[in-house]
Amino acid sequence: MKIKYIYIGIILSLLTLISACEDPLQEEVFSFIAPENFYNTASDAEAALVGVYAGLRMGSMYSQHYLIGDMGSDDTFTGEFRGNQDRIQMDEFTVDPNNGIVRDRYENSYITINRANAVISRVPAISMNDSQKENIINQAKFLRAFLYFDLVQLYGAVPLKVEETLNINDVASPRVDVNRIYDEVIIPDLLAAENLPASQNLEGQVTRSSAKALLARVYLTRAGDNPGSPYWALARDKAKEVIDSGHHRLLNAYRDVFQLENQNSPEHLFSVQFSALQGVGSTIQEFFQPRGINSITGNGNGVNEPTFDIVSAFDPNDIRFGTAFLLELPLANGGTNFYDPRASCMGFPAPCIPAPYIGKFQESAPPRGNLNYPIIRYADVLLMYAEAANEAEGSPSPTAYDMINQVRRRAGLPDIAPGLAQDAFRQAVRQERRKELAFEGIRRYDLVRWGILLDVMRNHFQVYYPVLAGNVQNHEVLLPIPQREIDLNPGIELADQNPGY
User: Fold this and answer.
1) What is the domain partition of the chain in residue ranges?
2) How confident is the model at residue 10 (pLDDT cuts 50, 70, 90)?
3) What angle in degrees, to the nearest 10, is found between the helix axes of 422-436 and 398-410?
4) CATH of domain 8-196+480-496
5) Omega before 351 cis (within 30°)?
6) Which residues pair with residue 159 across a beta bridge?
7) CA distance 353 to 146
8) Cα–Cα distance measured from residue 180 to residue 140, given in angstroms and rounded to the nearest whole number
9) Cβ–Cβ < 8 Å for 15, 51
10) Sorting pLDDT into bands at 50, 70 and 90, what band is 8?
11) What is the pTM of this model?
């Protein structure tokens, strides 16, 4: 069964927490049990770890990862023109330091990091099974590394907190060089997490392969667009360790990956867990469905809609198309809405969806909201290997071809033509990543690490929304440090803001 979150509210009321109305690095004690009186037993340690996992679902964290990872790219748009201004800013590249999505992601990341720090520092003193203790600590280290990795990709230099924040004296925290965060926390924590077991007793908890796969992604990101970087070989080798472990495989059908019965399958290396029955359901389906259409799955918000750019990126025979996009939507009155990818609903009866919506995350039976949100899948690992091997070796090897072709064969596509030059293979991998991982919050991160976010977005807007083409400015590779953080953190001044904001 999934990690249990049902008692999270009770657990966290017993712990020292960060006030939602104060600096995210400042904590305020409002419980009747001090932390030193809580971390006494193995059950306490397990409960505290659950609190770290629960942080991934707060606000616009990974329950709404698409707001940054997809909407901040050429794959989706908000579909709102006078609606939520935070989403409109993210979509149109007009984000400012007061943007609620930017602030929420930053603050909740530090709340969750502080929970991880508490586990890492306090659990070692608990008298409990050593293997269980190491497992808990290394899971917390994985999650801390994951969050810092996300922060540095989005904001650049950020405060580095590796000790539990307990009082006002610990609030002042200056921004720290990105390389230092990688070298002192992200990579060491993931190397420690490689000591995790190959499988866990509770579904959804990270494993050895989770750590290796995330470390491969870290190395790819550090390689950036530098053709001579040693990180390419490190990424290739780390991805190969996951592949050679024998613990993971592609599911037979692409559609199967996103079905409720296949949660935490051998293809899923790390997913954010949801459970409507336990009161922690996902809102992804509700947000992605067409607005104002009363389907059997309820009314949608239509706030994250695919662009015509991503629709046209799919080959005509790509099996993934019918899963990635919502082509048919059964209505509550017994009818069906259709989407015609060829033209304006020609050949389909009315009513018709004139543009596609996202179809990956669909549940027809209530209670809905149980689908996990995938962070790392095995298909991603195969594509990371193909990309890294091509860059590290100067040309695509037979093994690199095999990795990308495994992904393409499941999609019903022919193998990549042999004999490609390095750049042609590079472009093939990039295109495959876009289609295979569409709407999983990865697109913006890929564009940034390839060094092409600005060019891609300027071209995208010029073709589809010319009035927005001038919005894309050089500084927008990074998001702004939230204004509230500058106001409340004595270690960060206005002059420390990312340039351009």
Assistant:
1) 8-196+480-496
2) very low
3) 30
4) 1.25.40.390
5) yes
6) 175
7) 38
8) 20
9) yes
10) very low
11) 0.91
